[in-house]
Amino acid sequence: MTIMGRKSILIVSLLLFGIAMIANPYYFWPHHGDEAYELEVGEPIGGADDAVPIESLPSETARAIDEALEAYESDAEPPVYESRADVPTDGIPSESGRPAVRADGTDYVLMISEVDRSPPLLPESPLVRAVMGSVGAVAITLGAVTAVTGSSRLTTRRAWAIVTALGVVLGATIAYDGGVHGVAITGPGTGPLDAIVGTQGRTALGVLAWFLPAIGLVIGVAFRRRRWRDGSRHVGEPLCVLAFVVVTWLFTVPGILLGILIGEEAQ
Fold this sequence. Notes:
This protein is an alpha+beta fold. The protein contains seven helices and five strands; from the N terminus they run αββαβββααααα.
């Protein structure tokens, strides 16, 4: 096979792989970051004084409880609702700590619980989605760079094109989701970070975290091209880069290693 033939296969493979990392059922699963609630019935209990006969409930509530009872009896998944407000509870006393209903002479406790819905193949996680989006952006950009320049090696300028491509992928993902709830890489809302930046600030940082591996790749390529190894740069620049990597190492180090691997050696 000729060099041109191998290069064409590389370009097509990179482009197809990058597209597949983004255009797949997991990435496009429409419920990333959304809440979901289940309406369940618990084990039958003895006569509850405040149990509401199911026949006396509004039709929508009675139908929902019937579905929950069928799920309980058949050991199937209980009905799932998009939000807490969507769970039919009209006619059930809200002041009751353990609301109960009576169906066919048996009393059951009602439970409403928040649940995680599972997308295809992989667990729901903005981090997994960020990895897929980042890998897809890298592959697509490498394919395009190889097609235009004839080389799959990255200069610093080409590496910044990956950051731009990732920004396009992230922006399109946010537009598809209708918000940042499916892309923000955040942990539990406790600790000193919330006290400093607040919940919205933490969410913004969780979105910006998508860019850290790509920026790490730029740093790795720059290192491969001896940007800071010839002593020509002001000492403040490498110190700032080092401080940035120390703070963000969990996200940037993988990108740095990849950048060193695929960066183009300085002439």
